[in-house]
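[Backbone geometry]
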Amino acid sequence: MLKGVRIIDFSNYLPGPYATMRLAELGVEVIKVEPIEGDPARHLGIKKDDTGIVFLANNRQKKSIALNLKEKEGIELALKLIETADAVLESFRPGVMKKLGLDYETVIKHKEDIVYCSLTGYGNAGSFSHLGSHDINYMGVSGVLSQLKDERGKPVHPSIQIGDYLGGMAASERILAGIVAKILTGKGSYHCISIAETVASIMGNHLLIAQETDDQTGIKELNGVLVSYAMYETKDHRYVTLGALEQKFWLNFCQALGRDEWINAHFSKAETNNPVFMQVCELFRSRELTEWMEFGKIVDCCLTPVLEPNELHSFAYFQEKEILWENNNESMYVKMHRNQKQNGASSPALGQNTKELVAELIRKASE
């Protein structure tokens, strides 16, 4: 889809690499510029074949060139690479690329129509811009973390980096917008993505509802207060999600279970003093997860399981759509875009394409 587009990726860890991997799977040629010691994610946490899982999961279908950006030669090669590209992504703290001589103002002297995207925590200006932060910080300041609370009202520590992934999606979206604008106008552009702002952007419903009602928990019908839209525990201590918000789905649910007396309790509260809620809880606890999964496939009532990561590959929907796949080294991956062919490409070895890319630059210089 995007074959012929080239992006030079100076990002590390998770948000930036996730952004460019999404683009790589759309056909973009992503050249990952790594320090001599490699993206720190290569050495982080759990490893497979001596390479960090975080790196392997977010750098498929890319090329890698190892450059020392603290030396003149490394900077010169980076600038020559940028001259061949359509876009640049970087995720350093504000000011770092300027110190290196690879900031937007410098780069456009070498490539006037470049689309340049900086992926930051808090933007490139203002009193927060110099601060280091991580996913949990962006989740906190955006208000999103306040929506994930236990029964005591304590925020639950997420075990998935929602903010980082949203930031990566926003960066890939903005890069694509910049490339489209360049096609239309012939001009490049600069974009600065703030992950904190991106995460806050999903709080629109909550802000307006809080302004009108002083309720901080968003859309009431969707936040777990209704018997027909809630999570329930099963006999084997697993969980299912019931989303029978519309009348037809609740009707299907009740009638399939032979519980017509529940129909009028569609919008009743999911509280212990509600006898219907307690009966629904008891019924869900009478059958195991697999039984409810089968029920949810047969009865159109918006009933699905809460799956664990190692169950995704065996779930019928993902099998049918071939969303999950194994590459050549038998690692499990998830497609970034449905209907895009997987070529089995793994994440690159450190500097795997350095010789190839340097040779290309030399050849272009001699033409």
The longest strand covers residues 29-34. The chain has a mean pLDDT of 94.
